[in-house]
Amino acid sequence: MGDVLWTPPADVLQRSRIGNYLRWLREHRGLDFADYDELWRWSVTDLDAFWRSIWDHFEVVAHTPPTATLTDAGMPGTRWFPGATLNYAQNVLRMPGRADDDPVVIAHGQTRAPVTLTAAELREQVRRVAAGLRRLGVVAGDRVAAYAPNIGETYVLLLATSSLGAIFSSCAPEFGTRSVTDRWQQIEPKVLVAVDGYRYGDKPVDRRGEVAAIRAALPSLQHTVGIAYLDPAGVPAGAITWDELAAETDEPLTFTPVPFDHPLYVLYSSGTTGLPKPIVHGHGGILLEHLKMLALHHDLGPSDRFLWFTTTGWMMWNFLVSGPAVGAAIVLFDGNPGHPDLGALWRLAEETGTTYFGTSAPFLLACRKAGLVPKEIADLSALRGLGSTGAPLPAEGFTWVYETVGDRLQLQSLSGGTDVCTGFVGGVPLLAVHAGEITCRALGARVEARSADGTPVVGELGELVITAPMPSMPVGFWNDPDGRRYREAYFEVYPGVWRHGDWITINSRGGCVITGRSDATLNRGGVRLGTAEFYSVVEGLDEVVDSVVVHLEDDEGGAGELLLFVVLAEGLELDDDLRRKICRELRTSLSPRHVPDEIHQVRAVPRTLSAKKLEVPVKKILTGTPVDNAAAKGALANPESLTAFAALAQRRTATDTPTPA
Fold it and tell me: Angle formed by the axes of helices 177-187 and 208-217, to 10°?
């Protein structure tokens, strides 16, 4: 947890939105904080005062005011801002600091020419589409589903749906039929809005067959709206066109006032085993959390253009599209980030004047591995911030950013989840950036590390828990009336405490290092090893493109087996020399405990549609669980990758079976 790579400028308090917030707290609340740590501690202990300050500082538009900030601090079951009615879309479409003719949505992709919407055009599109949904009979509480990519129409649909108090849900069009129907059969949408296909790089991908199958599998559907995205004739029979939905009308743009915890959208767990969990997020909780995070932590405002590379199947899309609520313009991108090469997104950042570029740690590491120097292929002088999430970013990823992207920007590695639709650990303009370290715990997020016996620890690896409620914790799960599934998901291990499922080390200055999923732990000789540091070493080798590691426990308490699977660069075969090299690197960089018992070559590492590695299903397959029970193939980007692990499991079983006498 060493090197300082960036320090805040001397005038950070004058220039940043969190500096403005601190001045506001002094003037309006009589509160003065010596440093970020003191501010954070207040924010997680006086929940009432902190979250009310966010409401007041950002001047949330409400139709009726709240009677309190929260009912009680117990989890689960906390109710936030009881009595308040408001509307997420109304607060986003205020777009503070933006004139009517300012561009606020800048959409680029590989399927069609760029599209820009000004503030006035965005409001006009939302007005028309809301009227169109009303004509289709959509009312508060109805579900509207989007099988559509990261384009302007999907965003307009989210805002129009939420303006009516209806509930939005999206799946990216690369999701297969089963993956989509597993999600949407649970929520029974009334309206489906779908594209006919898209381009991924220069490859056209026709989705008309999938759209037909999805329609057939959803008896709740009353209407389908087709977006002719790939082919002008791509609207399916019996559907209306997007242009018809967004037809000219005299109906004014109105916003249905809903309670603070009224459902805004349904997000889903990755659904790698069993049905994906339908996680319901509320209007007020998402609004407050995103105002806080985007303005105070990411320092976004009316002078910013905010790009996060994401699909509509990942919660980072929902996070990105709240940008206009703090005045930021958003840059949408739909397509293959590696086409025609890994420089594409960096050039897009230059072309769109992006000031904050968010992406995933695997993307940054792939650029590093390819020897890319982004500042040599694009003018990135406008870039103030760079966000990284989706997986831990190791120290060498941090160093690469400062050497090859720019030394004046703030790199913010953050971690959170679909469950809270935010990052609860991340960066802040007030604190330095240390290589390999997430800078801080976010305001209002009482994150702790817990040891095996449940006590909080500092400077030691522990289970990541949240010990105070946050407004963006789910309203609940869909169709879980007694809250049983919700409690089992987060509160079963530590009653009254949210267990997130990651390993975290929090140091004495509040910096955090996340080392992988706690359910994928490598536990050798009583020492817990995180998977992230493992991948950092193995994938640092030129020969290794990707890897996955699992630990198979010994039922009798022995060391068990550590198995490493590697995807090698094109044309390479795993031989004993390379095995020895991998083992030597792990022993030298980490410890003898990290040296695997076996190394196998595979063609691909199984990943979810949002690119997360699947250690747990691999482990289940290797311990005898049938492939179909170990993972829901529709949730995988590459389900065929599982067959290699099933074949190995069979070979191992055959080897272990004693020969009959």
Answer: 30
Main-chain phi, psi angles of 646, to 5 degrees:
-65, -40
Separation in Å, CA 512 to CA 250, 427, 452, 469, 604: 53, 10, 18, 20, 30
CA torsion angle for 539, 543, 547, 550 (degrees, to 10)? -100
For 640, the token pair is 């065929």
Q: Which residues of the chain have pLDDT under 50?
A: 1, 658-661
Report the C-alpha gap between 234 and 224 in whole angstroms.
Answer: 13
**Residue 292 host element (H or E):** none
Using an 8 Å Cβ cutoff, are 149 and 195 in contact? yes
Sequence letter at residue 108:
H
Q: Convert the pLDDT of each residue in 24-39 to its tens digit.
A: 999 999 999 999 999 9
Nearest to 345 by CA among 328, 366, 316, 325: 366
Give first-to-last CA distance, the chain, whole Å.
58
Q: 429 with 440: CB under 8 angstroms?
A: no
List residues bridging with 147 in a β-sheet: 171, 194
Q: Is 238 left (phi over 0), alpha (psi -120 to 50) or beta?
A: left
Quick count: other Cβ atoms within 10 Å of Cβ 523?
14
Closest CA to 460 of 527, 523, 538, 388: 527
Cα-flanking dihedrals φ and ψ of residue 249, to 5°?
-155, 160
d(CA 220, CA 132): 19
Nearest to 165 by CA among 277, 259, 29: 259
Alpha-helical (H) ranges within 69-207 are: 88-92, 119-135, 152-163, 177-187
CA 96 to chain centre: 25
Give the C-alpha separation, 620 to 631, whole Å.
9
Please report, for residues 139, 148, 211, 236, 463, the alpha-carbon distance to residue 224 in angstroms, rounded to integers and kept in the order given. 16, 13, 10, 9, 45
DSSP H or E run through 93? none
* Per-residue three-class SS string for 532-546: HHHHHHHCCCCCEEE
DSSP-based helix, strand, coil % in the chain, nearest 5 = 35, 25, 40
> Which residues are registered as beta bridge partners of 523?
528
Under DSSP, the state recorded for 498 is: E
pTM: 0.88
Dump pLDDT digits (tens) for 132-183: 999 999 999 999 999 999 999 999 999 999 999 999 999 999 988 888 998 9
Which residue bears the tokens 């501010």?
Answer: 39
Residue tagged 């707290």 (tokens) = 25
